[in-house]
Design brief:
Strand content: 15-25%
Structural class: alpha/beta
Largest sheet: 8 strands, mixed
Shape: globular
CATH architecture: 3-Layer(aba) Sandwich
Distance between the termini: 53 Å
CATH class: Alpha Beta
Number of strands: 8
CATH topology: Rossmann fold
CATH superfamily: Vaccinia Virus protein VP39
Order of helices and strands: HHEHEHEEHEHHEEHHE
Helix content: 25-40%
Length: 230
């Protein structure tokens, strides 16, 4: 688990430590020597979790949060840009992160939800190297069965599966089966138990939460296209 200033910023932005982005941050902290793009990076918390051996890139449409991201990641390359038109050449990145930024699910977006999601994933596919990894997290339909914000749609397992299937090999897993209320108490109770977070990660990796977790989590590997020899 992250401690100090970064840990406090994560809790302040994401809420309790059962948020799937804490699990993702732990995974990103193990990367080395990669060129990494965080799409809709916000204040740059996930970029800050990356070791400095990685090349860090981030895009967001909000100049205010980009300013915060620059303060937290002074060596990162950060640009104001849309996820629907990434300002990078094809095959540029080893790793791409889309953490709770699915169009029409995590934020309201004009136009057809399916079209927007295909376009966002398509741009990620374009700038990702063959064999590169796309990390995706998103709230599940279980979560939105309890909380539905105006303008946002439910994301079913089949929806995410269809978005990833044309270009990736992957396994969609679930994260955090605990009820949302009271909001902050589950983590406050669990953090008193030694090793609770590692155990929760192990359960996630084993697929215990695939059908009833509050979040989807996947590490999708871009399929290498082989040309047929004539």
């Amino acid at each position: 688990m992250f401690k100090g200033t970064l840990g406090r910023l994560m809790i302040g932005d994401w809420g309790d430590q059962l948020d799937v982005r804490f699990h993702l941050a732990e995974r990103l902290a193990r990367l080395n020597g990669k060129r990494v793009l965080d799409i809709a990076c916000g204040p740059g918390l996930l970029l800050a979790a990356l070791p400095d051996s990685n090349e860090k890139y981030g895009i967001d449409t909000n100049p205010a949060v980009l300013k915060k991201a620059r303060q937290l990641n002074p060596r990162a390359s950060l640009k104001r840009a849309s996820m629907f038109r990434l300002p990078f050449e094809s095959g540029f990145f080893d790793v791409i992160v889309m953490a709770n930024v699915m169009p029409n699910v995590d934020f309201d977006c004009t136009g057809n939800a399916r079209t927007n999601q295909l376009k966002a994933i398509g741009e990620a596919v374009r700038v990702l190297k063959p064999g590169g990894i796309l990390f995706v997290t998103a709230p599940t339909a279980v979560w939105f069965g309890l909380f539905r914000a105006k303008g946002k749609k439910r994301l079913e397992y089949a929806d995410l599966d269809q978005l990833l299937k044309p270009s990736f090999t992957y396994e969609i897993k679930g994260w955090n089966p605990l009820p949302p209320f009271p909001y902050f108490l589950p983590a406050r109770f669990l953090k008193r138990i030694p090793g609770w977070f590692v155990f929760l990660e192990w359960l996630c990796e084993k697929g215990f939460f695939n059908k009833w977790g509050k979040f989807f989590y996947t590490e999708a590997v871009k399929t290498v296209k082989h040309k047929c020899k004539g």
